[in-house]
Amino acid sequence: MSETMKAFRCWSTADVRRTVYSDIGALSIDADAVFLAAHTPMSIKHAKGGALAPGLSGEQQVLSALVEDFGDSERNTLVAVTGGSGAGKSHIIRWVHAHLRAADDRYRILYVPRAIQTLRELLRRLVTELPGVDGSDFMKRIDAAVGNISEEQLADKLLEEMRYALTWQIEEQSSGSGESDEERGRREDRNNLLGERDENGKRRDGLADLLALPELNRWLLRKEGLLREVARTSQTESSRRDRQHDRFTVDDLPLQKAQFAKEARSRAGLRDIHNLIVEFPDPALDLLGDALEVAVPRAFGTRSAEGDTLESLFRRSREALRAEGLELVLLFEDLAQFGLIDGELYDQFVIQPGDELAPLRVAYAVTTGHGRIPKTVLGRITHEFEVDDSALRDRPVFLARYLNLVRVGRENIDAARAAAGPDSTDWIPNACDTREDGSPCRFRSECHAGFGTVEVGGLGRVGLFPYNDHALQRALDGPQARPPGVPVTPRRLLETVVQAELVRADTHLAAGDYPYPEIKNRFDWQQELPEESLIGSRQGPEAERLLRALVLWGAERPLPPQIVEAFGLPVGPKPAGPVVPPPPPGRRPPPPQVPPSSKEQTPLAQLAPWGGGKELPNVDVDRYRTMLRDMLTARVQLDQDLYYTERGEGREVLNSLLSVKSFDIKGGYGRVAASVNRPFEIEQSRENARFLFGAYWWYIHGHWKTDEGRWDWPTDGYQVGEVMAEVEARFDDWAEQIRQRFKEKVKGRGPARAALGVRAIALRALGVPPTDLDGVAAVLRHSDAIPEQREVQDWEPVHLAARAVLRRAPARDYANQFAAVRQGTAANPQLYAIAELGSALREAAESPSAFLRATAADYQDAAPLVALAAKELLTALDTGALDRLAAAKDLTTKLADGLAQSDPVTIADAAEKVGQRAARENMFRPADGWPTFRQQADRLRDLRPGLLADLTGRSAGNPVDELLELRPYLKEVMSGVQALRYLKKCLEDTAAQAVRQSRVHGDPGQLAQVAREDLSRVEEFMRILVDGGTA
Amino acid sequence: MTDVLPAWITVAEAAVKQASDVAGTRDRIAVLGKLQEVLDRLLGDLPALAEAAALGNGSWWIGVTAPPSLWADLRKLQQTADTPNENTVQRFERELRDLLNQQVRVRLLERWAAHVREVIGEMPEAAKALKELGGAGTRIGNLATDLDREVRRFQSVGKRLPTEADVHALRVATETFDQIERELPAGVRDFVIAATRPEGASLDLFDGARDWLAEQTLLGSVRVRFGTGAERAP
């Protein structure tokens, strides 16, 4: 490695803060790109509603449920997404919003994100986005009601409206049929709390009068009370997202306050209800809640005897939409936002379209147990989906999306989304492949090899750095991510494993002290081996850091050199311990001699019982899988087949075929990922226990000297020769299998051939003439820094895709790795497999479109980057190919017309001659254009003789192929057309100027005659005036 | 390939050629235009000066001396009127304008004023005295009133160029004065003229006028005042 990973980070703390939002409410409405880039497809339970199309992900089901009734004007659709706090409900609604087309002519969308937190803004959003109505008067009323008064005043206004409601508006409840004793008791208590009506109908000695008592009045208006919170919510930002009930609680009554009791008891009429409240507060709290519901719309101005109300605005909007045959889609990220104004909303949900109103398609998220949804609404829910922790089923994938997002960064993710357009599905860049101006990260190979990767659908392999498999698991199981007694939610994992840890890692990697000491309290710290066997006799902070890395990243096994380097761990001359460089193929360096007295426990202590059917401890499973991976990797030796697997794509292909997950040790933890094809299964048996023991002996010791091991060689049934032969045979067999799989996967020299052919096509698409691409070496050595030919218009998408090919599918690397002869493990090849590569170039030249198509289809596994790049280039070429072709031909025609069958040099000379004379006579136009005119004349002279002849008659039968045939000449043609256009325009303007200058106003002879006469008159006068009148 | 050039080149070529050809004409017209402008300006000023000079030609106006170069430039311009030289045009205007403003105009005003003063002489005082002496309605009084009106026109002489009307007024004043002289006996005329002078008329002269004054019942209009003869008459 010429550059070192030490202190390297592929993210910054600022990136973390700008891209990771554990609470979607904090994510701004226009941040769809960030949202979608981090979104993990969810599986959710369809708790209610008719069957939907099979095979849909969770959010796709919600979208499908929402749109399934489009066109049915008879009924509304109500889709509820429920789940615990932090489960991802709002994510689903937002995803639905991001995938509904705003421009669809069947419906209009009203979307209320959770980011809106004040009631005032919520109302403003509703009325301004309700289609077809003008809610400005309504909002003026709201602003007037809550805009210019203090929070204290608004709370008091609420309280007075509550008193008014209790005095005049809230009716007593009458008994219903089948009323239980308890229900009857509550009803009677409630009615008693209202008080008695006097002769004018005003209630006296009830809750309304109690609310006027100074102590209760003050208590209800205290800062932390519900009324103040409601007032606050209407005016300033205040997160109420987890508050499930805007209801009064017993804390809202000063039941323990002596002053309250004193005031209540001082009035005979109130003494009884005070007693009632003290003993049974619930009816009073319910009644206060009912009063608040009546009071809020009055205090906030949402209901008024005059002017618009939410109900009237909704109705008018629905009427207007119905008249246009449109439907209204309502998307609410959090129904709890609506709090005390939800009544108006629920009314709309239950009002069916009939003949006059547009049908509603509503999708809303609400926390399970939100108790305010009325039964009338619950009964009309068309579909209900329950979100559990499905996002957490594959936690590494879930987290890897965020790791990638953080690395890509906010600007880049926004730009990628903007460039891809709303319909694109595979627009999210993989930072590992693109983070260096579209080129792969310089450390990708090393990093992926050392820290490991996660395969993420649509993204490819995402590096786990700064985690590896083991560290990530330890982080996920740590007390921060999984505190005792608290359910694990995606939000919690994001906050701890991504947000907090990446920020810490950023700081500590930079400072060179990662993993930092506190990490033991954040991760699941389980150390089985004694410190001495891990770090030898080392001591001090660096030794402790090494220990943390060994336990949390290394599973108490040797750390891969990439981790050692990235963390800058102390690996110099060491006293003892397992931190060692990677072993040579199939061998490890001899360990330090260990005196017999310090012999460790033999691995057979666990392996033997495992062979007999017992479970193998997790730490041992990790240990043996790592060992098997390392030993087999060293044994494969693909370089003999001209495949280079030390790093780069070859290494990644090998990693995809051979990892710790490739070994399925039965009777041990750790499922083999579904993506692992044909794992090596190791059944529980005495023989396999012996094999693992032998392999591990060799792995640790690098010799078969049974008396020089760190533990005792068993005596019973463990003949060294047999064990050795068994180990060798097994690894030879596996290595051969891996070699075959590798060749199958890479399709022989396929990746190199594909990458080379695609590169040649990309170079042609960028305008490189075929003469510069003659042969393998020419194509490989051609510079990637091709100046942008801006004069070739409408080719930007093709140029972008072509440049992406050069960056993302580096043919030199593929040729080096899959079709080159080299010495040892050196990266630089000595010879290429020219015959195979040359044939690929010929195929690519013969029919570029067919070559790209075949590459895109055939190399998705073997060379996914090449396949993807080929697909994107073909798509870019294909899209608008006919238009582009027509434009290219039009350009050729223009050049031919401009030259008028003359040759460019003749035209340029003649034009320059005329221009020169005009410039001399000050009639050249534009007046300052002469230097440019000469440059353009030179451009015209530079046109290749015979260019037009070369262009005419070309027809490849396929627009893309024909375009690529024309492409190398387009710049020159365009240059000629532009030069001609400029020369022509200048000479036309100059001719016009010359004509203007040719016009003469007046006859010089006549003018001279007049002058003569006037001179004579002057002379006459002069003669009168001068001496004697003579000269 | 052919050597036939596209029309946009040949058209431009022809237009440029034609424009180049007319450029000289355009320059000639431009200089002629400038000459004409100069001549227009000069001919705007010269007539008034010449008219004034013509009124005094042969009497009070004898002309100024023009520099030879001015005449030379005039000749040159007249000879090359088809292709005048712009520098000559400018120089001619500058020198002629200097001559007109600094000499002709100044001299005209000075000489006219001197001529007027010479002609009028003591007419204003005589007119005043005879107006007083003759009184309204008398022949002499009427003539004196006419004379007074005519000579008043020349109170601001020397501030503007003379006109035909000025010359006419001067002639009328002279004729009126001559008529008054003819109407008055010689003794009376001498007395009146002397009386208008600062030292006044002596009693000797009064004797020659007394009879005529008595005859004209004008004796009451005369007051005798004793003095040294050096003081100004009231």
Query: Helical content of chain B, roughly?
Result: over 70%
Major beta sheet summary of chain B: none
Query: N-to-C terminal Cα separation of chain B, in Å?
Result: 115 Å
Low-confidence segments of chain B: none
Broad structural category of chain B? mainly alpha
Largest interface, counted by CB within 8 Å of the partner chain's CB: A-B, 54 and 58 residues
Q: How large a portion of the residues of chain A is in β-strands, by DSSP E?
A: 5-15%
Return the average pLDDT of chain B rounded to an integer: 85
Ends of chain A: how far apart?
Answer: 105 Å
Count of DSSP H/I helices of chain A: 45
| Strand content range of chain B | under 5%
Roughly how many Å is the radius of gyration of chain A?
A: 41 Å
Please provide the count of β strands of chain A. Answer: 14
Total DSSP E strands of chain B? 0
Q: In what order do the strands lie side by side in the largest sheet of chain A?
A: 1-8-2-7-6-3
**Portion of residues in helices of chain A?**
40-55%
Summarize this entry quickly.
The complex is a heterodimer of chains A (1031) and B (234). Chain A is mainly alpha-helical and 1031 residues long.
Describe the overall structure.
With 1031 residues, chain A is mainly alpha-helical. In chain A, 54% of the residues lie in helices and 6% in strands. In chain A, the strands form five sheets. Chain A has a six-stranded mixed β-sheet, sandwiched between helices. A two-stranded antiparallel sheet of chain A has the order 4-5. Chain A has a two-stranded antiparallel ribbon with strand order 9-10. In chain A, helix 15 (310-323) packs parallel to helix 16 (342-350), helix 33 (750-765) runs parallel beside helix 39 (864-878) and helix 41 packs parallel to helix 44 (959-998). The longest helix of chain A has 40 residues, at 959-998. Chain B is mainly α. In chain B, helix 7 (186-195) packs across helix 8 (203-215). Classes of the chains: A mainly alpha (1031), B mainly alpha (234). The interface between A and B is large, with 54 and 58 residues.
